[in-house]
Each structure stands twice: as C-alpha cells, then as structure tokens.
Design goal:
heterodimer; A: about 100 residues; Ubiquitin-like (UB roll); 3 strands; disordered N terminus; B: about 350 residues; Ferritin; 2 domains; two-stranded antiparallel ribbon; 13 helices; about 65% helix; about 0% strand; binds fe (ii) ion
Chain lengths: ~100, ~350
C-alpha cells in the first residue's frame, strides 16, 4: 500500500470493546506505518485505564460510509413507516404494553 | 497526503443551495445537535475549529515539558509513577485532539509542522519554567484546574469529534488536578521550607493560570477597555453562536477564581492577588481584573522559554525520525499487512 510519506504514516480508525457485553465502539484514530504499530499506538492511547477487552484498527481509507447528507435518497426506507413500531398498535391489555398478558 | 479517508473527508459540495445548507446547519446547532465530519459546515466554522483544536492539541504536548523535566527528580517512586501517568495523559490528550482535527480535512503532520515553524502556537502558559518540585504540584492544581473549568463546557461543543475527544480528556483531568492538590498538601503539611517552596510556586503560577489559561479579557467587567472588549466579545459571540464555545473567557475566569480561593485556604496558601475578597453582593470572589496590561505581563517579556519549548519539541521530533523510518520500512516489507513476506 503506498501513499505514505515521511512524517505522515497512514491513518487508522480505532475501535475498542471496553467491557464484556459491549460491541466495539469507534474511539478515534491513530497514525501508524502498519497494523502492528497502529495496534500498539491504539493501545497506548485508548487503553490507559480500565480493563479493555479488545481493539480493532482499520485503515481509514478502507472504511466506506454513507453520510447524513445522503439521508433522503439513501435512508428513505427508515422513515415514515410508523407501522414498524409496536406503539403503532393497540396494547394487548387495558393496562398497556407493560401490563399482564395472561387472561 | 495518504488518500483522504472516506470516513472523515469533507463532502464535496452537492448541488444544493448554499442557503439551504446553512439553514440546516444553523438548525442543527440551535437544537443542540452535533455537527459531524461529513456534514456541510460554513468555512468560517471549519477554520475556527481547526485553529482552536490545533492550538489546544499543541498546548497539551508542549504542556508536557515543564512537568516532564521533573520526572527524573521526583522525590519518591510513588510521586514519580503518578507524574509519569499524568504526563503520559497529556501526550494522549494531544493525540485525541490531533485525531479530532484530522476529521476536518487537515493532516496532523502539517499541524506539527506549523507548530515547529512557529505558524501555530501553543498556550503561552507553558512558556514559564518549572523551577522546583513544587511547581509540578502548582501546575497541576492551578493550570490543570483552569483547564477543567475551560474544558468541561467543551464536552458539549457543537462539533462531534471535538466533543468526544474532550469527554475523554475531562475524565482524565480530574486525576491531574487531584494529584497536584495532593502534592501541594503534602508540602504544606511538611517542613517550613517545603511549605515556603509550595507558596513560592503558587506565587509564580497563579498569574499564568488565571490569565493565560482563559485567554484575553473579552468583557469590560473582566478588565478589557471598551474597544478590546468589543473585539474579544465579537470573537466569543461568533464562537458561541456556532456552539463552539459556551461561555466568555471572563465568565470562566471568575468560575476558576471562585473554585480556587477556598482550596488555597484549606492548603494554608495565599493566592498572590491582594484584591481577592468575597463579594457578598455578586456572590463571587473579587480579584484584580485581567486587563490587557496584566495579560501581557503574564505572557512574559522573555521569550527564552517560548523558544526553548519549541526547540525541545523539534529536537524530540527529529530524534524520533529513525523510529518512523524504521516503522515505514517494516510496513513496506510486510506490505502493510503485519505479516512477513514468505
Ligand atoms: Fe490535558
Ligand atoms: Fe492535564
């Protein structure tokens, strides 16, 4: 992979799973020449406290995104569909959705 | 530039009316929503952020130097471990912030270059030397204490990556201030010489903290004359309208004084400002206003330490060149995958 010049190694996005039961979460980025160096930099930077469980580093230019600016055409499927939510329908008991369900 | 990354690259202007984009941006800021890297933003907003985040990042790493100079001379292994952790955190703060700045389409190597060449600056606070061990305590208690007050509102700043970086920073700053206060308390409970050393350090660090950590006066009440107050207020108002800042410099300065006075009393130390006294009517401590003359006095006439900080930073960067070259050579040999070629 080219594109590195002196003083400007590649950018890597860092994902940290900080606790058992959580998904990896994006925490920021580091600059490093290769994946080993990126992991070491991410460890030094994002895991100085707590008991982190795992780290991912992904080259920033390998991440592809759909931005909020493209919301209308791109994410149109998520909007104006109230019937996808339970609140759109009547609860099963008079006490509401949290009420008892047995007769 | 290593392929502008798609995660962070600013979007190319879509075929939409600029007025609509601005209205949408203003609505997001007004609603307290964050602006994210690929959102459209006014050029002025981007420039103000790059300038502020870069200056902030530079201050974090330059700020390592006065305390870092005491790492080999800490009085006990415990104090040394604590100070290493604190100084290492400051390096981390710089890196969180350079990472945030890069989401605005600038390259951190270029920012460091600008620092080294004097085109961008770090806070002048750290252009003062740490003359004794007590300075490490005074710096952490007073300047990190000032930083906490300055930075807490930045956890809600309108630019998402900056706000998230600041939340990490703020979590760590609480440790910095407490260990500094603890160090000062130990000296104040020690021999008369130790207590005198603590007082001496406070005498030297109070003005840099109260003046430089909050920026120049931006209100007339804070000590600016009408003209500079108007200028300062215009900049602050712009930053506040964009949700970058939440308070004026002088408002935060007052908050700092209010928090420090009782802490100094508990330590039995005197803050070197004879004008400090409780003002029942205002519900705040009065103090000598930081007018422009006082501000300039805090900057210091002698630029020796300012040059020294940058020279040290450059030397560290140049001395580390072989490490970066070795890492690049290793990455090239392993094709950037981490695995050795077979
Ligand atoms: Fe910091
Ligand atoms: Fe700090």
């Amino acid at each position: 992979m080219s594109g590195t010049r002196e003083g400007a190694p590649a950018s890597w996005e860092v994902f940290l799973r900080s606790r058992r039961g959580l998904a990896h979460q994006h925490v920021g980025s580091v600059r490093a020449a290769g994946p080993d160096a990126a992991l070491a930099a991410a460890r030094d930077l994002y895991t100085r406290r707590g008991e982190p469980l795992s780290l991912w580093v992904v080259r920033s230019d390998a991440v592809h995104t759909a931005s909020p600016d493209e919301r209308d055409p791109y994410f149109a499927g998520a909007r104006h569909k109230p019937y996808r939510y339970p609140e759109h329908f009547a609860p099963l008991t008079e006490k509401g959705p949290e009420g008892e369900h047995h007769e | 530039m290593p392929g502008r990354c798609p995660v962070t690259a600013p979007t190319t202007a879509p075929a939409v009316d600029e007025g609509d984009l601005l209205a949408h941006f203003d609505a997001l800021v007004a609603a307290g929503e964050t602006i994210e890297p690929r959102d459209w933003m006014p050029d002025g907003y981007r420039r103000m952020l790059v300038r502020q985040i870069a200056q902030h990042a530079h201050s974090e790493i330059i700020g390592m130097q006065p305390e870092g100079a005491w790492l080999t001379r800490a009085p006990s292994l415990h104090r040394k471990s604590v100070l290493i952790a604190k100084v290492q955190d400051e390096a981390g703060h710089g890196l969180y912030l350079y990472s945030a700045a890069e989401t605005l389409g600038v390259d951190r190597a270029a920012l460091l270059d600008a620092l080294h060449r004097g085109q961008q600056r770090a806070s002048a606070t750290f252009n003062h030397p740490a003359l004794t061990w007590a300075d490490t305590g005074a710096i952490a208690w007073l300047t990190d204490g000032a930083a906490v007050i300055n930075q807490a509102p930045l956890c809600r700043t309108s630019y998402g990556p900056y706000a998230r970086a600041m939340r990490r920073v703020c979590q760590e700053e609480a440790f910095h201030v407490r260990q500094g206060y603890d160090l000062m308390r130990a000296l104040c409970e020690g021999t008369p010489e130790q207590k005198a050393m603590a007082q001496d350090a406070v005498n030297r660090w109070w003005l840099p903290a109260v003046a430089l950590m909050f920026g120049p006066p931006d209100t007339e009440a804070g000590g600016a004359d009408a003209r500079t107050a108007a200028l300062g207020a215009a900049v602050s108002r712009r930053a506040m309208a964009w949700g970058i800042k939440r308070h004026t410099n002088d408002e935060l300065r007052q908050r700092f004084v209010d928090s420090c006075v009782p802490q100094a009393e508990r330590l039995g130390l005197t803050l070197p400002d004879p004008a400090i006294r409780w003002n029942e009517e205002r519900g705040h401590y009065d103090f000598t206003p930081i007018d422009w003359d006082t501000y300039r006095e805090a900057l210091g006439d002698d630029t020796h330490w300012a040059r020294q900080r940058i020279a040290h930073r450059r030397a560290a960067h140049e001395d580390g060149a072989w490490v970066r070259e070795a890492a690049a050579a290793y990455a090239a040999r392993t094709d950037g995958t981490g695995g050795e070629d077979e």
